[in-house]
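Q: I have 270 residues here and want to know how they pack in 3D. Can you give me a structure?
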Amino acid sequence: MNDRRWRKRHLFLLAYLVFALLPIYWMVNMSFKTNEEILASFSLWPRDFTWENYRTIFTDASWYSGYINSLVYVAINTVISITVALPAAYAFSRYSFLGDQQLFFWLLTNRMTPPAVFLLPFFQLYTTLGLMDTHLAVALAHLVFNVPLAVWILEGFMSGIPREIDETAYIDGYSFPRFFLTIFLPLIKAGVGVAAFFCFMFSWVELLLARTLTSVNAKPIVATMTRTVSASGMDWAVLAAAGTLTIVPGAIVIWFVRHYIAKGFAMGRV
């Protein structure tokens, strides 16, 4: 009986891995083919293996600048989101005030709102302020979604820290900034890692705001990938190579924060 259950579990796990990894494998497979081979035949591996698609991305400024632009505004957004969310999450975890639960819920409703709702206000505001087609424009727009999520995650981690630590530090003469940076922050570094990961991933994959608020100077890779139609048709091979490279930053971030994410799942905050 136990042996049968063990087989079923491994069978379901194997099926999940196949369905999860097959699209990634197929995209990597296409990235080493030519357009002619992709359109002419069906094959599980490249017949005429080529690095030309990756060479195009690393030598064409319209492609590699998209990755640079994306990394710039994602980094700006992640830093600002965590910086703003830390004191807010501390306040929610340590103090009770009139309307605190309602305010906390209101913050989360921003996270549940589709980006299209904020598109027109952001477009008009940034046009007036001269922020259109800048990295800061996209970074600030993503704060509406990332700050509430970061506050929610960090508040859960901070609530797990006993309040006696705060009181002991104050008795020992610690100022609040010193206490927060030297004692409290190291205790919630797992939460900071988890929050930074989710902020990074949202900004990295978000398309609508990033594409609308930029045109040339700050155009992200997600916008570049949607404009690969040439006179000869869709450039499937280069698009597959770009998609493969787009996975790399997320995979690197996941590798460094994988233990923190597991702890977040255990706490019920992820």
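Q: Anything worth noting?
A: Residues 61-94 form the longest helix (34 residues). The mean pLDDT is 86.
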